[in-house]
Design a protein that fits this description.
The structure is a single chain. This protein has 113 residues and is α+β, with helices and mostly antiparallel strands. It has two domains: 65 residues, no CATH class; 37 residues, no CATH class. It has three helices and five strands; from the N terminus they run βααββββα. Strands 1-3-2 form a three-stranded antiparallel sheet. The model has no long low-confidence stretch (mean pLDDT 88).
Length: 113
């Protein structure tokens, strides 16, 4: 059954010392997959199929996925202060008890103390 997902994370490029195909084969074998499944044509496809929550392949680049799932019904407050004094923010909240300006005010006030 489909459902709404909310995830937060980071993807980091992986330095591949060989071709993507050779690296994918080595990764699969190191993680317990010694042979291609009958429904996969090559090791890159096998890696995508078996490790889609750990490794992302885009063209010829591989990325490590670090992700956490967040309850879509919970509030979110994610704020980063930048070097120039600005802030990046992501809020998810029920506006029956607060508003965006209050959240931002509390955030900025908390960083100035």
């Amino acid at each position: 059954m489909s459902r709404t997902e909310m995830c937060k994370g980071k993807i980091t490029p992986i330095k591949i010392p060989t071709t993507l195909a050779l690296w994918a084969e080595g990764y699969c074998k190191m993680n317990g997959i010694a042979e291609l499944k009958e429904y996969t044509d090559d090791w890159v496809e096998q890696l995508r199929d078996s490790f889609d929550e750990k490794i992302l392949i885009v063209d010829d680049q591989a990325f490590e996925i670090e992700s956490i799932e967040i309850d879509p019904d919970e509030d979110i407050k994610d704020v980063t202060k930048n070097e120039d004094g600005s802030f990046n923010y992501l809020f998810k909240f029920y506006n029956g008890g607060t508003c965006l300006s209050e959240l931002l005010e509390d955030t900025v006030r908390g960083t100035l103390k």
